[in-house]
Write a structure and sequence with these properties.
Length: 80
């Protein structure tokens, strides 16, 4: 559970720092279209995982959802 939470928080930190850049600045999106597309992919994933976790009554169950740990572990290494 701890490893999943650590990775989850790391993805969230990256997502929070990049959200304002890619969601709020059209010039950045236009200048870096591949990065903007990569962010959009991570953004959709992060929002879907957060919505699913919100429906799960137990933190343990949320962390141990099938594939969640591997998913966050993979996304912390994406540099946008």
């Amino acid at each position: 559970m701890r490893a999943v939470l650590d990775n989850w928080l790391e993805v969230q930190r990256h997502w929070c720092s990049l959200e304002g850049i890619y969601m709020g600045d059209v010039a950045v999106r236009d200048a870096l279209p591949a990065n903007a597309e990569a962010f959009d992919s991570v953004d959709a994933l992060f929002k879907a995982e957060m919505a699913d976790a919100a429906l799960t009554p137990s933190a343990l169950e949320a962390c141990l959802a099938p594939g969640r740990g591997a998913l966050f572990a993979r996304y912390i290494y994406i540099h946008i």
